[in-house]
Design a protein that fits this description.
Oligomer: single chain
Shape: elongated
Pfam families: Rad60-SLD_2
CATH superfamily: Phosphatidylinositol 3-kinase Catalytic Subunit, Chain A, domain 1
Protein name: Membrane-anchored ubiquitin-fold protein
Number of helices: 3
Keywords: Cell membrane, Lipoprotein, Membrane, Methylation, Palmitate, Prenylation
Function: May serve as docking site to facilitate the association of other proteins to the plasma membrane.
Distance between the termini: 76 Å
Main location: membrane
């Protein structure tokens, strides 16, 4: 395939609208390595920081990218502009135990109902 770029300029859009990057990544870089890069560059002042790669989801072209895929595998001809910057969205998901803890600590969930017939 001639014309395929060896690298891609990517910026990561966080949920609050701020960005990380743009940074150049080789086409052979894995999605997991993109997530590691996001973790290392995560703004310290943000309170919803992910703790591990598993806490992150990267979305590009409307698809959630799998860790074992490469940047080259995830390219979409519709969104890949030669010499341009590709924007990928980053979503932080809470680990299941934190979600359960929040539900347990919710006072609405602590109510006891008793019905006498």
């Amino acid at each position: 395939m001639s014309g395929v770029q060896d690298s891609l300029e990517i910026k990561f859009r966080l949920i609050d609208g701020s960005d990380i990057g743009p940074t150049s990544f080789p086409a052979a870089a894995s999605v997991a390595s993109l997530k590691e890069n996001i973790l290392s560059q995560w703004p310290k002042e943000k309170n919803n920081a992910p703790r591990t790669v598993k806490d992150l989801k990267i979305i590009s072209g409307g698809k959630i990218l799998e860790n074992n895929k490469t940047v080259g595998d995830c390219r979409s001809p519709l969104y890949d502009v030669p010499g341009g910057v590709t924007t990928m969205h980053v979503v932080v998901s809470q680990p299941p135990q934190e979600k359960e803890m929040k539900l347990k600590s919710d006072p609405k969930q602590q109510k006891c109902v008793c019905v006498i017939l």
